[in-house]
């Protein structure tokens, strides 16, 4: 059995660039018709045009996942124009910084609106179309911050933790309808978001070098490496996997005390 999505429709939120773009390309390569949903109309349309087409048709739909009316309208359009929805990749996300005291109400709501409620909206309006198709798969993009925290990121960390709760709740609610729901949790991945985050520091290259060292594999991940995991979880190869989370983190969360502790000398536990 090979992983194929011929005859299926895959919807990818935040599909204009980064991990979402890689996922959209992966599903297109594997035979799916792909609907890219993104609020960046120029980049989204360009990405959709560049997808390998073959016999299938891909499309871009402008949409802010934080706005329920827009998501509802777009999911209805995808269903009508592309024939249904089989796969939802809930990937759209933003990174914002601040501890609780330093986070304004507006910033908190912005992060929750996109990263958590955006996933709620996408699933709310995609699931009925999946039920009509007799089943489907939802893959939510969490983060290593679904399990751990970095400083000065209270809203982001909270939203990413909460996503796993939403994944688990949906996996139970929709199992009878044969809809599987899983979460991929990436480490640092070389996307526009990571480059933007690094650019906030006085020496962005130093941040990228640090990101490399945070992973036992010695480098940050590539968007297509996350896309591979997303495609696997959405495919029949994962037919008995639901409610699960899959780290795609180059081993980042494995070392006790983090890589700094490993590198810093831990007595007998350090390989000489
Ligand atoms: P990018 O910023 O590179 O790409 C995200 C895309 O989503 C952009 O096109 C962005 O548009 C779009 N988007 C953002 N908000 C919305 C919205 N409200 N509605 C529709 N589209 C939106 O991000 P990544 O590819 O790096 O990240 C993708 C996901 O992976 C996110 O959920 C992120 O939290 C997660 N992740 C990323 C990691 C990394 O190291 N890169 C690590 C772990 C998790 P715009 O440019 O206008 O914002």
Keywords:
272 residues, alpha/beta, Rossmann fold, seven-stranded parallel sheet, 9 helices, 45% helix, 14% strand, binds NADPH dihydro-nicotinamide-adenine-dinucleotide phosphate
In words, what does this structure look like?
The protein is of the alpha/beta class and 272 residues long. The chain has one domain: Rossmann fold (3-Layer(aba) Sandwich), CATH 3.40.50.720. It has helices at 18-29, 41-50, 68-82, 105-132, 154-174, 192-199, 204-214, 223-234, 258-263, and strands at residues 9-13, 33-38, 59-62, 87-90, 136-141, 179-186, 245-248. The chain has a seven-stranded parallel β-sheet, sandwiched between helices. It is globular, with a radius of gyration of 19 Å. The structure holds NADPH dihydro-nicotinamide-adenine-dinucleotide phosphate. NADPH dihydro-nicotinamide-adenine-dinucleotide phosphate (NDP) is lined by residues 13-14, 16-20, 38-40, 43, 63-66, 91-94, 114, 118, 141, 143, 186, 188-189, 191-194. NADPH dihydro-nicotinamide-adenine-dinucleotide phosphate binds at residues 13-14, 16-20, 38-40, 43, 63-66, 91-94, 114, 118, 141, 143, 186, 188-189, 191-194.
What about the largest sheet? 7 strands, parallel
> Helix share of residues?
40-55%
How are strands sequenced across the largest beta sheet?
Answer: 3-2-1-4-5-6-7
β-strand number: 7
Name the bound molecules. NADPH dihydro-nicotinamide-adenine-dinucleotide phosphate
Proportion of strand residues: 5-15%
Total helical elements: 9
CATH topology: Rossmann fold
| SSE succession | EHEHEHEHEHEHHHEH
In whole angstroms, how far apart are the ends?
44 Å
The overall number of domains is: 1
The overall pLDDT, averaged over residues, is 96
CATH class: Alpha Beta
What CATH architecture do you see? 3-Layer(aba) Sandwich
Q: Spans of 5+ residues with little confidence (pLDDT < 50)?
A: none
User: CATH homologous superfamily, by name?
Assistant: NAD(P)-binding Rossmann-like Domain
Radius of gyration from the alpha-carbon trace, in angstroms: 19 Å
